[in-house]
Amino acid sequence: MKLEYAKDNLTQQPYRHYLKRYQEISPKVISESSGLTFHEKEQAFLIRFMGVLYQVTHPEFQIRYQEQGNGIYMLEENIDAQILLLRYLLDGNAVMSSGKMISYHDLPWGEVYYRQFQGRCIFRLARNYGTRIPEFRRIMESLHGIKKETGDAAYEFEFLEDLKLCLILWEGEPEEGFPPSAQILFSDNFPAAFSAEDVAYVGDIVMDYMKKCREIKKESRCENE
C-alpha cells in the first residue's frame, strides 16, 4: 500500500531521513544489531509486528503482510509504525528480556516524557476501555494476548520481535467517585530497542490499533443489522 506523506511534514521529513539511512546501510549490519535474518533470495527481512508477519524488503523498504489477520495491518498502513520500525532497524539492539516488566517512568528519561505518555496513552486506555472490559478482552485476544492475573483485566502481548507490552485495566467505582484507571508495562529489553520518546509512539500505535478494531466491530454490527 502506497501512503501519501507529502501532506504532513511532521511525518514526511523523518520518514525520508530514516528511509535514506536504511537504504544506505548494509542488511548485514541490521541483522547483527536486530537479530533478524536477512533472506537473500527475497532480499527481505521477515518481521512480526503486533501479531502479523510482514516481509520488509531492503533497500526499497516495501512492506507486505504474509499472513491473513483481522484486516488491520498497522505496518502497511501507519506511517508512525513504519518510522518506528526504521528507527529500530537502524539504532535498536535486540536484547533478551529477563521476564521483568517495567513502567514507562522506569525507562531511561521516561520521567521527562511521562506526563505526555500518561495523557496520550494511559488515560486514553482507561477512558476508552475501563467501562468496556469485554471489548478490551476481544481486542487483546486479536493480538494473541496472554491473560494475566492482575487488575480487573490484563493482557500481555508481543509488540515487535520479543518486545512485549502488558495492558492493565481497573474498572473503578464511578458512583463512588473512583473512575477507571490503567497501566501500561514494557518488557525490560525495551530500553535497548527504543528511546523513551519512541516508546511513547509505541503506545500511540497500540491505541490506534485498538481504535481500528472498534471501528471494524461497529461496521460489522451495522452490516448485520
TrEMBL record:
Q: Where is the DUF3786 domain?
A: 27-207
Descriptive protein name? DUF3786 domain-containing protein
Source species, please? Anaerosacchariphilus hominis
